[in-house]
Amino acid sequence: MQTLSKLLLGGAAVIFLTACSSQSSRRETISRGKEITVAGDVPTGRRVQGKDNRGGNLPGAPAMPSSLPSSPLRKVTFYLENSQSMFGYVSGITRYVDVVAELAEKPDFVKEEIPREFFFINGTGPVITPIGDDPVVLKKKLNTSGFRCGDITRSNLNGMFQTVLAQAGEGVISILISDGIYDIGDGGMTSLVTSGKETRSQFIRRLQSADLQTLMIKLTSEFKGDYFYASRKGKIALNSERPYYIWIFGESHLLARYFPDSYITSELTGYETLARFLKPAGEPLPWQLVSENSLGSYRFDHKVKNRLVDARPDRNGRGFQVTLAVDFSSLPFPGEVYLDPASYTCSGNYAVAEVKIPARKIHSLSFTPTHLVSVKSMKNPACKVTVSLVNRVPGWIAVTAAEDEENLAGDTSRTFGLGYLTDAITQAYRSVAGNQPLASFDFEVQ
Amino acid sequence: MREFFAAMYETLFRVYDVSYPEIFSTLYNYGGYVKLGLIFLLAPLFFWLLFYFLWRYPYGRVRHWLLWWLLSGVVVLVVTWLQARGAIFDSPNPALADALADPESGYKAFAATLPQRYALINAGLSLVAGFLYSLILKPFSKIQMHLPF
Asked: b/e per residue, A61-87, with b = 16+ CB within 10 A?
């Protein structure tokens, strides 16, 4: 028994030493962990850097490489519609004048000595009247007498877009300021439809040769002057608020740099809302399934990233819910776009139930998520799921579009025919993008 | 082996909690599950090899066998507790260390109970394994072939 006791104690000591060595050899374990990661032997953990298990870019990698600042800003061109219908915006010191002056002397442009060129644009040609490159000269022309040049009797929105779009790209930002009303003459609504199609073609042609983002800003200003009906002959004198629009075209990284939402909302007086149109870059955004805000039970698969196993619905009949932590910071859209469940589509039995901004740090992530997108299924949770962020037309556009030109005096926020214009832009971007979503996230539930 | 032990602890014994995935991915990725599994398999084997082949006392009783059996379970309990504690709290995974250091994450409170749970599971498994080892090794022993029965 004594021999056995000695052996027992010896054996126990060996086991204890083995256990303790695993703790004391921490440094050694760290280096082993690193080697394993590089060799790809343990790419199953969610901490593996560089590439995910599907070979996609992981957090840290830029989500939109096409948006990288490959070309610096070389020039900004301004086109101000100066048909007679715009005269009401420059009758006195108006918010329109203030905004144009602000854009012309944007501090960033001044600091970086970015060349600026200013043009008036009107007529059916259209007729382009150069103003020069001096903002002071432009500001002196922001009145009815200054606007009175070129062919003020007509305007051609499609011609304006063609001109402005042609200028944009390769380090050039091009800006068009207009009331956004098609001059359809006697053609009636049919002309409005065909004009919209023509606008779409202008955009498609330009987008095929350049990856341009379109930033459309709606603003209101005092308007004291004649409103010329677009759908029929005649005019009406107005002294009220009227909407007008700024379209800014350029590469995404330049628009993100020089026209962030914060600048637009705080510095452009009369700002109402905005929309951004862009081609999806096709690069994956940093994202990962997380346990926050989930329903039912499941496990994260250790081997395959973003695969859930042993998924079962909630015992109280509330269904099955999982959450995607996503970093949308590289996309340029306003925050409400990401928070709206209607901005997403889901495949399988799932639907987006809720989108939240993370309230606290999520430790299982190697990136900082901007949003938590929770998807829910009331049916069998096991399936492959694709959640997509789609480029929907902002709701304000439908509200702003007017189908007729009645009650103009009382209608201070709507624009005749705007829906055709914005539909054209949206359709053009969708067509060029091949109806791809802005971002999509695939995962599997087993 | 990693898959087997991970599935055993996480699914069969329901130790897994989806709210703290970093702990379980660390145990999986850094070999924690394999070590825990080997402890409950190898420790009792070692104990019963000693009992049947090195203990030369010819008048061994069932109570000796029983004491040895329980002792092996206690050793596995303590070793597993130490091993699990080290694998979690001295983890080389910086994300887990970060989570444990954040009191708002709840990781530390949850992780504090895990070594005990793994220790109890392993102790129970080692007793089962030990009993089986005993039955397997007994016929090959020249002295303790009559134990446990």
From this structure: bebbebbeeeeebebbbbbbbbbbbbb
Tally of CB atoms within 10 A around B90:
14
Q: What is the pTM of this model?
A: 0.71
Q: Which residues of chain A are at the B interface, by a Cβ-Cβ cutoff of 8 Å? A: 1, 3-4, 7-8, 11-12, 15-16, 18-20, 22-23, 26, 29-30, 33, 36, 42, 44-47, 291, 294, 297-300, 302-303, 310, 360-361, 363-364, 366
Residues A105, A113 contacting (CB under 8 angstroms): no
Confidence of residue A39 (pLDDT cuts 50, 70, 90): very low
Complex ipTM above 0.90? no
- Cβ A107 vs Cβ A259: under 8 Å: no
Tell which B residues from 39 to 78 touch A, by Cβ distance under 8 Å.
39, 43, 46-47, 50-51, 54-57, 71, 75, 78
HSE-CB for A258 with a 13 A CA cutoff: 32
Query: Would you list the DSSP string of A320-352?
Result: EEEEEEE--TTS-S-HHHHH-GGGEEE-TTEEE
> Could you say which DSSP state residue B50 is in?
I
Residue with tokens 């897994």: B16
